Every structure is written in C-alpha cells, then in structure tokens.
Amino acid sequence: MDLKMNSTEVSNATSSDCSRFCLIKPQHISISVLICLTFLVGLLLNVFSLWVFTCRTQEWTSNTVLQFHLAVSDVLICPMGPFMAVYYHTANWLFGKVLCRLKIAFITFHINSSILFLTFISIQRYVAVVRFNQDSYMNRKDFVQKLCFGVWLFVLVKGTVLAAVLDTSTMDNHTLCLSIHQEKYTDFYFIVNFTVLIPGLLLSFVVSAICYTLLVRSMSRLDTSHDSGQAIKSKSCKMVAVCLTIFVVCFTPMNVLRSVGLVVKKFFPCNCGLLLNVETAYYVSWILAGANCCLDPIIYCFSCQKFTKTFRISLRKIGLRLEMSHGESS
Fold it and tell me: Which residues does the UniProt record annotate as the domain G-protein coupled receptors family 1 profile (predicted)?
C-alpha cells in the first residue's frame, strides 16, 4: 500500500517536488581526464599559434587578424579545464562563488566569440577567393580589427550579464554551478537557450555553410592543370572540411544535448533516468567542444601560407635546439 502511495506521489509531483527523487551523481573519472587532456593540448597549440602570429608574422592581413582573435578565444577557455574536470567528477563546486562566475563568463566568451570568428573567417575566405578582384570591407584590415573589437564588446557584455545573474546554489548537499539541477534557474536557462544560443548557432552555421558551398563551387571551376590551381583547390577544400567539422562535431552536440536536457528538466522533471543520461552525454560533449581548440590551428595552416611556413620553421628551430641540448648533455 505504501509503495502505491509513493508511486502516486512521484507521478503527481511538480518540478520542485521531483528534485528530491533525482539524485545528483558524479561523472566517471574518464570524462574529467579527457577534458583535462583536450584543453591542455588546445592550450599548447594556441599559445604556440599566438607566438607565431605575434613574433614570427611580420605582415598581417585581415585573415590574420581574425585568426589571431580566434586563437585568443581558445586560450581563454583552456585554464577552466581543470576546474570543470574536478566539478564533473565530484558533482560539487569546490572553488567558491567568484570562480563560478568567472567560469560562466569565460565559457560565454569562448563559445560565442569562437562561433562568430569562425563565421567571419568563412565570409572573409569567400570574399578573398571568390571575389578577389573586387573591393570589400572584409579584405580591409582596419575594418576587420573594428569588427573583432565589436565581437569582444558583445561577448563581454553578454558574459558579464550572465555571470551577474547566475550564481552557485546548494541542493542535496551539493554545491552547483551552471548546472541543470539548479531549479531556480530552469526557466532562465530555457529562455536564454532557445531565444539566444540556438538561433545564434543556427544563423552562424547557415552563413558559414553558404559561404563554403559557394567557395567549393568556385574552386571546382579553377584550372587544376597547373600546380598552383591544384594547391589552392586542395587547401581551400581541406579548410572547408575542418571548419564544418568544428561546427558539426564540436558545437552542435553540446547545444543539442543542452536543449534536450532543459526540455526534460522543464516538462518531464520526474524522469530522472533520462535526465541523468542526458546530463552525462552533455558532459561528454564538452570533450568535443574543447576539441575545437585543437582543430582551430589547422585552419590557420590551410588558410594562411605564411603561418604554415612560419610554423614549420619554428618547429625546425625547436627541434634543432632540443638536438643541440641533447648533444651537450651527452
């Protein structure tokens, strides 16, 4: 009789009543390890890329400016990796309110600026290759610098607002930070996700897909009988593949799983099994999201011959220094 009553109570429970039935569970250690490794590799690659841009690239173009700011965006999020890894494994935010707000702000900075810079890179690449003989603002370095300043101003305001509104909360003896289990923010998360985040991602993806489709179509008409034509076509097509991979593989799963989790939390709060499975899948998607920091430097190599040349020369110098150090120690 008691079991029937408890079952009826759960089925008729509201969202707040269901919170006590959905236990907050730590994630597997492998998720935390992979997140740390991904962000560590991304940090090393992008710090090296920034060094190449600032110390080894003498003449900057509009394309170089966009790539530099994309690398800065990737570097910003990488130090958050260890904090996120500990949080996912313990299901407990141990670092206080200030670091929680910083985490929210830096995640907002990175995700939004990366998507915007990738979109502008696609537009600039289309203009530079398909409309190379026409004057365009996207080929003007001063205009692109102002555009990048506008992007940072936009994400700074957005990240600051979110960090000011959101905070830590305690549930079931767990301190939570930017978690789907924070019921007081469920409606806020839901509204922001479906009115700002998802439309922004879809618009950026559509613009990039159109630009790259037109780019590939233009590349198909190039004369590939000469080595230069074949090289341009090969590099452009490879860059297309990398950029679309970043959108589809790195950003899409995270946004889709977050949306599914919010729908489950808001409309099916008592379906704890589904909610916890979606939450785990969402944390796994952060590994893919972090992988964009590792893939972005590949774009620099495909889209900028100077970067590729400088990158190779720098690696040779580092290898030579390591070889000399090894010889001296021997």
Answer: 45-300
